[in-house]
Amino acid sequence: MGLLDMVLGNSSEVSQQEIDKNFNGVLFEGETVEKGYKVVRDIWLFTSHRLIILDIQGLTGKKKEYHSVPYKSIRQFSIETAGEFDDDCEMKLYVAGLSLPLSYEFKKGVDIIGIQRKLAEHICK
User: Fold this and answer.
1) pLDDT, tens only, 73-111
2) How confident is the model at residue 1, as a pLDDT?
């Protein structure tokens, strides 16, 4: 990912090296990684069983929060693409047991359609 992509917030696929570095010990035996997207510093990882959203926090990036959402608990989702004058995309995940959706904003240029396609592959089977 180039400097311009980082500033603009464009997403890219996550390398195996980044997966090994950030998800060592997080994946369970038999769980496989299908696709990962890096959005600025955060990573959306689609596995055979769940969606893991890694929120990298702080100035140094040493503080990390892992959101683990089993596909079977996602009841629906919505996306809002960026418009002419609106630079942000948004995704909402409606998860069983939560009264409000999990809401994530992405900068214009993020492959929000690719992310929703991968999510749909898992929850619409």
Assistant:
1) 999 999 988 777 667 888 899 999 999 999 888 777 778
2) 39
Q: What CATH code is carried by the domain that includes residue 71?
A: 2.30.29.50
| Residue type for position 11 | S
d(Cα 52, Cα 97) in Å, to the nearest integer?
18
Count up the domains in the chain and report the number. 1
Beta strand residue intervals within the chain, DSSP E: 11-13, 33-39, 42-47, 50-57, 63-70, 74-80, 88-95, 102-107
| Closest to 89 in 3D by CA, of 56, 113, 73 | 113
Domain range spanning residue 82?
3-123
- Give pLDDT, residue 54: 95
